[in-house]
Write a structure and sequence with these properties.
Elements (H helix, E strand, L loop, with lengths): L2 H7 L39 H13 L3 H14 L2 H13 L5 E2 H8 L3 H10 L2 E5 L9 E7 H5 L1
Length: 150
């Protein structure tokens, strides 16, 4: 079939103008909203940038710098990665061979995220013995850079 004959039977594009079928927005019926006692009604509005900056300045002025400093320190010391590493090193020193990550995590009763961070940030040697995403095949080796750096 020639290209000219083919074009007669195939439609490449189509445009339809629906504007004449759409009613103006203000004439559409509105559904009444009933506010339940348990529901709160949110009002979203545009805020001028200067009003926002003024509100931020007021909020900053109401903060006691000493209290903010103490809160920041408390937050920073809440995650003591060195302490986590010490707990892992103590547990590993009682073993003579490599151990699976999950066995270590269950034994020291620490969340997996904390164990993982402590291992990575404290220089422990980690070995992947299976597939990449196989968590059961992540092993912690006995020797670590940790004892060398202390």
């Amino acid at each position: 079939m020639s290209e000219a004959a083919f074009d007669q039977y195939v439609r490449q594009t189509m445009q339809i103008e629906f504007d004449e079928y759409i009613e103006p927005f203000d004439t559409l019926p509105r559904k009444p909203t009933a506010i339940d006692e348990n529901e709160s009604q949110s009002i979203v509005a545009e805020v001028e940038p200067m009003r926002l900056i003024e509100a931020l300045h007021e909020a900053i002025q109401n903060v006691d710098p000493d209290v903010a400093y103490e809160q920041a320190l408390a937050l920073a010391h809440a995650e003591d990665v060195s302490e986590w590493g010490d707990a892992i090193q103590t547990w590993l020193s009682q073993r003579e061979q490599a151990v699976p990550l999950l066995k270590l995590q269950r034994s020291i009763k620490m969340p997996l995220v904390q164990v993982w961070l402590a291992l990575l940030l404290n220089g422990f040697k980690i070995e992947q013995r299976g597939e990449f995403y196989d968590l059961e095949q992540v092993w912690i080796l006995q020797s670590s850079n940790r004892s060398e750096t202390r």
